[in-house]
Amino acid sequence: MSNRLTKSPNDPVKPALDNPLWRYSLAVYGYSPLQQALLDLQDNQGAQVNVLLAQGWLQQQGRNISPQQWQAVGQLLAPWFSLTHSLRSQRRAIKANASGAMGARLYTAVKALELAAEQRQQALIYDYLQTWAQGGAAGAEVVFSGLTPTQSEALQGIFRQAWKAAQKDKAQNN
To answer: What residue numbers bound the domain in which 157 lies?
Structure first.
């Protein structure tokens, strides 16, 4: 059995892109207070949105991994974080500077690449978490990586609200 701590982002084993973490993220990210909080943390503190979403997903399930394991996740995904950051910067530059139909097509293409890179990150995180996440009580408290306890507590509340909103939307659409 391979050691998940040493798994490379270039590993030939391809984790499933459509997984419960990805579906959770799509559901809760539509909640605008959560989206704004995550983007603020990303832009102002260098937080990794996919890691925060994974922590929120684990919190919702009452699961967690150790700070050292979160650090290993960060090391595993460092090349993907760099790629995604580069794509995000390019997308924002295109949005600010490009115009016309060609600019719109280029923006859409780069945005799709950025989203694909985000999805790949989440697939790798999900694969990793299947090996390491520990169980606990549903809604257990999680200290989000790289955040102060106050920020972490506030983000926990926003994640809970986002999950409730996502569940309400799901019920209304069924």
So the answer is: 14-173
